[in-house]
Amino acid sequence: MPDSFMENPMPAPLRLGLAGLGTVGIGVVKIVQKHADLIALRAGRPVVITAVSARDRGRNRDADLSGYAWENDPVALARRDDVDVFVEVMGGHEGPAKAATEAAIAAGKDVVTANKALLAHHGQALALAAEAAGRVIRFEAAVAGGIPVIKALTEGLAGNRMRRVMGVMNGTCNYILTRMQNAGLPYETVFEEARQLGYLEADPNLDVGGIDAGHKLSLLAAIAFGTKVSFDHVELEGIGNVSIEDIRMADDMGYHIKLLGVAQMTGRGLEQRMTPCLVPADSPLGQLQGGTNMVVLEGDSVGQIVLRGPGAGEGPTASAVMGDVIDIARGLRLSTFGQPAATLVDPVPAKAATPAPYYLRMTLLDKPGALAKVATCLGEAGISIDQMRQINQAGEADDKAIVLIVTHKAAPADIAYALSRFAETGVVMGAPVAIRIEEV
Ligand code: HSE
Q1: Which atom of ligand 1 lies nearest, measured to the CA of 207?
Q2: Has this prediction a pTM greater than 0.90?
Q3: Which of the listed CATH numbers 3.40.50.1000, 3.40.50.300, 3.60.21.10, 3.30.360.10 matches domain 149-311?
Q4: Does residue 235 have its Cβ closer than 6 Å to ligand 1?
Q5: N or C, which end of the chain is more exposed by having fewer CB within 10 Å?
Q6: For 357-377, what is each residue's pLDDT tens digit?
């Protein structure tokens, strides 16, 4: 053994207490065991798990946990003397996850978490508590799974004033939308398929209602714009009303439908939206298939950066957890949201989204003057038509036509006003559809 090694023995290990032994927790165990040497070299010290906790001790798990102490209660785990970093991969924004995270900070532990809901609801209070105690909270795994987007924003892009953050950050929704498109299947059928495949959260509305993705967007917005996490002001709309007709017709017009998150600071305040949008089919976001995530970051100096990768799953999420753990082992101590929590400001929420082009679909009585009446409603709302297409579907009654319109940029309120007047025309049948087209 070389003398230099004897003179510089490896420093003390960083000791993890792992709360949660589901998909992500087991992924963390596997990486710690499989890459112990690699991690010790990179971190400059060994990283070990000393204790674990989970709801059900007896469950058969695909990992050797025999070397770890067991705690039934994650709060007790968080307070253990042989734990330096509390790794929370249980989930849930109240109850044990919150209690244990608070206990860990109070006991002087650093925290690594994959829990987007916890931080979306309590991020500011937790960050203040951690920073007052000289502790760090890291949460790379909470946003876009394996994509190191928190690191990109807080470190690589720290010299930029961020302009806009966008992304497809729920793989289940992107799976459902792309499968509907590729197989021509309705929402209900593909939703059921996703359930069978185990893609849906225990509460599916977290996925398809846009809530999970909204949590993630609110965390990115806090870092990007130096604002307190403000999930309550995210405009949320899920994918449950996206029809196969609109997916097909948007495709015909050169667009794909995505559950897209957009956060931007405007003269009218902070805009945060997680809603179905049309994006150009040939754009990176438009091309995104299946359960993959994509985050687009725009800064004043760097321009636009596109990050793409797996947004969920054992390996990718555990990879993100371990990136944070290794940073802590290396001695890197960053503020939770990239600047001290006490300096984050209350955002002024923008009352309405920035004007954008809209896709409109409606069924018209196919008779003289019908289109003119619709055009008049749009014109009187100050909305200009960019493209229009009429589709007379085979098998449909002769007196009906589907009309697709793409508008020039319009304010959401003007679109809503025009749509509200369609009923008076006597030629628009049923409810028209309006979907924002995001310029990406
Ligand atoms: N259910 C999420 C998704 C992963 O489908 O992307 C966890 O946030």
Answers
A1: 1
A2: yes
A3: 3.30.360.10
A4: no
A5: N
A6: 999 999 999 889 999 999 999
